[in-house]
Structures are given as structure tokens and as C-alpha cells.
Amino acid sequence: MNDNNRYDDIKDVYWEKVDADSGKIKFINMNRRSTVRTLVKLCCFILVAAVSGGISGAYIANKKESTKIYTPDNQLLVESNNGNKKQEDTSESNIYTNSISKVAQTVGLSVVGISNKAEGYFGLQDVGSGSGIIVDSNGYIATNYHVIEGADKVTVRLSSGKILDASILGVNQQADLAVIKVDAKNLPVVKFGDSSAVKVGDIVIAVGNSLGQEFPSVTAGIISALNRKIEYNGTVYKVIQTDAATNPGNSGGALCNIKGYVIGINTLKIGSDSNVEGISFAININDAKNIIKSLMSYGEVSKPYLGIYGESVTSQNNNVQGVYIQQVEKDSGAAASGIKPTDILTEIDGKKVKSLSDIEGILQGHKVGDKVVGKIWRNGKIIEIEIVLSENKESE
């Protein structure tokens, strides 16, 4: 028996154990061991690779997260400074530049330049200039009284450049208003707004004849105060205060809101003695309209009044406060009602009276011939009286 190749199929063996009794040798197949070892190594490799990949991925992810830029959802924060500036410029242009330019072009057609001429050594000479607003297409123009005061001749320059002679229809020195007329038809007229609706902070535009040279000139500002009480020639005015720059040539011109409606008539005379800078005043159009209508129709203004002169007083114990009457005009409503000097007027038409301006404000809501109930303090007693408002024609 040939045993030389009996174990050819066994390539490698380990001597596991020799049993002395049986004399047998047990062989272990290394191919199975090798497969198991390979699988173990492969699992270890995969595990190590997974752990390494996880660590590497976490490191890279953390690094990227630390360098990531947050994008806000507020687009104003996202846009560049140039973009924001462009947006702001566009917005301001729409609100201010375009609107003011449009108002200037529209209202400017209805604003005129006025020249005041007086006889001098060398004949007629310019002694002043101002502005006016066309209130009727047939040539009626409203302006300030002081613009045409003392004039021997008045000329008007239209926005077209045409110069016309003007006649003075009527003036109201106390209100600093006047109406003049030129021989022309189909003139562009201003649109009146409601001055009672304006608020502090509203944008306003002054259109006029600045310094008598540039026509029309335009400045803009805001309403800085309402119902400012300014005294001029013994009269207390409730005017609109604005920081829109105005010059002497602007007097009589238009103060407009951002929609182009006239809410006031600029006046440089009122408040000129107050030594103020950076602000100017305008007669509110609601008060001016009735005066303008009266001047157009009658050449004068009829205004209800009491016919008294006095000053504000307050008793030491503050029990009595009102207007101490110093003088009562003859044939006035006050005289007819029995009011006497030394009386103290405390109330009119159910409203407390503390000053002459309070009286004027109350009478603005009445007309000549109206009856109002007043209260006076006399000799320690309050007396109730009825006053018929008389007529006060203010014309020069």
C-alpha cells in the first residue's frame, strides 16, 4: 500500500493533541480559521472606518457651521448700504422733490408778482414788491395790504411774464389783506384748502415773488405751530407758523399743502417786530376767504364788534377774571346794552373771556345784528346783559 500521497489534500496542520491510548492524530482545517479571521478583520476595518468617518464628518460639519453667515429675513438688513441709500433717495424723491416740483408748477401759474410804485422826484419809482394769488379768473387778485400800501400805481406780473396795470378794489388794514384787479380773462386760479385741517409737522410750500426778482420762487418746510397769536397795529392775529423760508417779496403769496391747496397767505409784516429768525407766518385761508369775498363785492369789510377797549385783569383772590373796560364807543352795541367803563366783562355767548383776543375769537362766529348774552362784574355783582353786535367797517 502506497501511503506517500495519502494526505496530499492537507496542506497545513496543527498538532492539536496526541492520544496515547489510541495513537490517533486529529487534524484542523486552516482554511476555515482563515475565513473567520478575515471576517473579523473586515468587521474591525469597517468599524474603524465608520468611527473615523463619523469623527471627520463631525469636524468638517462643525467647521462649516462655524463659518456659515446668517441671512436675516428682514430685507432692509440684507441689502447693501448702497441699496438702502438708493431706496431712501427714491422714496424722498417721490415724497418731496416730485411733489414739491408738481405743486410749484401748478400753483405757480396762479401766483403773481406785484410792484408798488409811488411818485418821486424822478417820477414813478418802485418802492416795494410782493406777491398775490389769483382768486377769480376775471382778474381778481388777493394780496397783503402792506404790499400795496401808499401806492400811486400797482403793476402785476403774471407767470407768463406779461405785465398789467392793476386797480385797488378794497383793503382791510387790520387784517393786512387787499384785493386788486387786472383787466384779463380766463386766468388760472388757486384752489383753497381747509386751514383748520392742517397739523403741526405737515409739509408746506411757499410760492411767491422772492425779493421781487425771482418769480415764482419756491421754498418748503413744515407747520411748526398753529393759531399763534401775533399782535400787529393793535390787532391780535391767529396765524400759521412755518419754517419755510420767506422774504419780503413772498408777502401776499401762497402757502400750500403738499397737494397744492392754499392754506394760508404769507405775510412778512405780521411778526416782524418779534425779532424771530427761521420762522414766518401766514394768515390762515379760512379767516382770509370771507374778508377777500367782502372786498371783492363791496370794497370794504363789515365786521361785528362790541365797541369796547380794555385790558385783561384778575382779582387778587382769582374770583374775578376778564376784560376791564376802559372805554365804550358811542353808538356801539356795548353802549346800547348799558355797558360802562370800569365794568369787567367776564363772559360772552357762554364762553369765558380773559382777553380782547378771546372776544375777537368769539365774535368771528357771528355777524352784524346778532344778539349775544354777556356777563359783567359791577360793584361786586355779576350782571347778565344782551348785546346786539354793531357794524365795524374797516377800510382805508
From TrEMBL:
Domain of life of the source = Bacteria
PROSITE patterns in alphabetical order: PDZ
Q: What class of enzyme is it?
A: hydrolase
| Membrane-spanning segments | 39-61
Q: Which InterPro entries match?
A: Chloro_Bact_Ser_Proteases, PDZ, PDZ_sf, Peptidase_S1_PA, Peptidase_S1C
- What Enzyme Commission number(s) apply to this enzyme? 3.4.21.-
Q: Which residues form the PDZ domain?
A: 298-380
GO MF annotation, one: serine-type endopeptidase activity
- Any Gene Ontology biological process: proteolysis
- Supply the alphabetized keyword list: Hydrolase, Membrane, Protease, Transmembrane, Transmembrane helix
Instruction: Write down a Pfam family by its short name.
Output: PDZ_2
**Protein name listed in UniProt:** Predicted serine protease
What organism does the UniProt record list as the source? Answer: Clostridium kluyveri (strain ATCC 8527 / DSM 555 / NBRC 12016 / NCIMB 10680 / K1)
